[in-house]
Amino acid sequence: MLYENENLGDNYPQIFNCLNKINDYKAIMTKTDYLMRLRKCTTIDTLERVIEKNKYALSDDELELFYSAADHRLAELTMNKLYDKIPTSVWKYVR
Fold it and tell me: What is the CATH number of domain 27-93?
């Protein structure tokens, strides 16, 4: 631990590199993370706009999770009910 009057000395490059790695770190979002954010969308129209925007902003792996969460949210909006897991019978009502 460094104190106020302590000299960084030779450790400065190591500390600087660690700080850069922390700044470059990108948190990996899960399907649940995306779903929680998509639950802010209260209409199907808003959800479709968010999907369209993220289609070009996310990598392929992230997009797969995002689409899964978006489908989940679309089912919730269609049925006007929140689900942890969408029942199979609900999917026939989702366009």
Answer: 1.20.1280.40
